[in-house]
Specification:
The chain is mainly α. The chain is built from 24 helices and five strands. Strands 3-4-5 form a three-stranded antiparallel sheet, with no helix packed on it. It has a two-stranded antiparallel sheet with strand order 1-2.
């Protein structure tokens, strides 16, 4: 009976999502995030009911496993609901903007590398169209903001991969989809890969990990700033950053999965290379991190499996060929657009910065200011919802709040630097004898730590500060921090009072991080969404 009810409920939700406009549930044309959410839930219910009916024994095993891991449900569901919530806050604003990736996908389908929209005569008539002040004086604003202008054509300087993925869809579908759909899709995919890595790490390094530990790890992975902020903004920039991190962390997962097998699994290493190639094709700024991760992966394989150099050739080529193919394709893409394999289009960008004449775009002199802005910039408390507000940084017109205040959980990334005089902690530190060079976990930690450091340095060298840039290093940093929490908890097994204090600090820091990371993304009217959701449910039930 329950299985049939699941199928029926799923089919009803599918009908509601497909005919939402005709039923008066959704007055907007196209597919919003909420409508897509109903579709996904409907598919999940109908699919689960069908599988339960068709394969009852296998389905029962899956259900038993899920219920045994109750903490997964208690942690994942709030994260997903929060994602859906904050992504709806600014939905009308994001709908009104130029849909960069959908437009580029449409161009790809028509055999063009440039955007379909043409520069206006007024823009081309300017002595220097890249000069922001000159454009303002001439009142020329008839172009998509932050595109590249080269030889009287508009291009995107961000990588083409998201647009290539969209190009498989029809013209009609592309007219309804926006950058915000890519944002939440990539964000959920990144969250899933992070969970898979942490659960595997816990299973291998933490004997019988407590549910609260895994729950805290999942919540911090999903809701640490700037994730909610980026979901609330949901535009081209956020899609590129989330997409790049999704492919980067996905590659790390497949490498970790490969080196935990009996022998290095070539198809998994190939998937890692594909993911990293797609990361490069989404955002070229990730290149230093990718090079580091690839080198560490090969060194890790060499030490874990004790292979000879000849035996290393197959694992090397399995991971390297997709990455090299992506680099060659990107070089061709740049040459075809800007007559240089090294030019991505940044210096031809139409924005408030003239990159053709700008100096020190990447410079060490920016590091001090950026460190202050990213980690120490103050925030404002208010007696009114959402109680915590970011303060505008005038130079970049970005609202900021320092990570040391709104994400104290990242301090656990410093545990390896803690004094090792106490025997209680010495045996549990990631770089102690308990995690030798032959351990896959050691190389996972080295990969995550180095990726976070390199990503953070790249961000700090850039001339301006944006909260979304934090996501360039935050996923790797959080994986490393959560791994340190697990190792620290293990190390205190025989020290009851110290472990209790450690658990208390962990829960406190995690609570501050999750709550603050969500509140800074909200607006004073954010709770209206729940009111509207209630009204929608009442209309569906024909009560209102």
């Amino acid at each position: 009976m329950i299985k049939k009810a699941m199928i029926l409920a799923g089919c009803i939700l599918l009908l509601f999502s497909a005919f939402a406009q005709q039923l008066g549930i959704d007055n907007d044309q196209g597919w919003g995030t909420g409508r897509i959410a109903i579709l996904v839930v409907g598919l999940a219910l109908a699919g689960s009911g069908f599988l339960a009916t068709r394969y009852p024994e296998q389905y029962s095993k899956v259900v038993d496993t899920v219920w045994k891991r109750w903490y997964l449900i208690l942690a994942v569901v709030p994260v997903v609901l929060t994602y859906l919530w904050v992504s709806q806050i600014n939905i009308e604003y994001t709908r009104q903007h130029y849909q960069y990736y959908a437009e580029l996908a449409r161009s790809f389908k028509n055999g063009r590398l440039h955007l379909e929209q043409k520069p206006s005569p007024a823009l081309l008539a300017l002595e220097n169209p890249y000069d922001y002040d000159l454009r303002v004086q001439a009142a020329v604003e008839d172009f998509p903001w932050d595109v590249s202008l080269y030889k009287e054509k508009f291009y995107l300087y961000y990588g083409p991969v998201p647009a290539l993925l969209l190009s498989v869809f029809s013209e009609g579908f592309l007219s309804q989809i926006g950058d915000r759909h890519l944002v939440i899709t990539f964000a959920l995919g990144l969250f899933l890969y992070e969970i898979l890595i942490l659960l595997r790490f816990f299973a291998r390094s933490t004997p019988q990990p407590p549910g609260w530990l895994a729950g805290i790890a999942i919540l911090t992975l999903g809701l640490t700033a700037p994730t909610a902020i980026m979901l609330q903004e949901s535009r081209l920039y956020q899609a590129a950053v989330f997409g790049c991190q999704f492919f980067l962390i996905g590659g790390c997962y497949w490498v970790y999965s490969a080196i935990t097998d009996i022998r290095p699994t070539l198809w998994k290493l190939g998937l890692a290379g594909v993911h990293w190639g797609l990361a490069l094709g989404t955002r070229s700024a990730i290149l230093p991190v990718l090079l580091y991760a690839a080198v560490i992966a090969m060194i890790g394989i060499y030490f874990v499996f004790r292979l000879t150099l000849a035996e290393m050739l197959l694992p090397f080529f399995a991971a390297a060929i997709p990455l090299l193919f992506a680099a060659a394709s990107l070089a061709w893409y740049n040459q075809a657009r800007f007559d240089s394999i090294f030019e991505f289009g940044l210096k031809y960008t139409l924005t408030n910065m003239n990159y053709l004449t700008g100096n020190d775009i990447f410079s060490a002199r920016h590091m001090g200011v950026n460190f202050y802005n990213y980690f120490l910039h103050p925030f404002r408390l208010s007696p009114h919802f959402p109680y915590l507000f970011r303060i505008e940084y005038i130079f970049s017109s970005e609202r900021l709040a320092g990570l040391f205040y709104i994400a104290p959980y990242i301090f656990f990334a410093l545990l390896p630097l803690a004094p090792q005089r106490k025997a209680a902690l010495a045996d549990g530190m990631p770089y102690s004898r308990s995690l030798a060079a032959s351990s896959p976990e050691f190389w996972l930690l080295v990969m995550c730590a180095g990726s976070a450091v390199i990503g953070a340095i790249t961000v700090h060298l850039f001339w301006t500060t944006e909260m979304r840039y934090i996501e360039d290093f935050m996923p790797s940093l959080l994986l490393f921090a959560n791994a340190n929490v697990a190792l620290g908890y293990n190390a205190l097994e025989n020290h009851v009072r110290q472990r209790q204090m450690f658990v208390l600090v962990t829960v406190l820091f995690a609570a501050i991080t999750v709550v603050a990371g969500t509140l800074v993304a909200l607006k004073s009217d954010s709770l209206l969404i729940w009111t509207n959701l209630g009204d929608t449910i009442l209309r569906i039930l024909n009560i209102k």
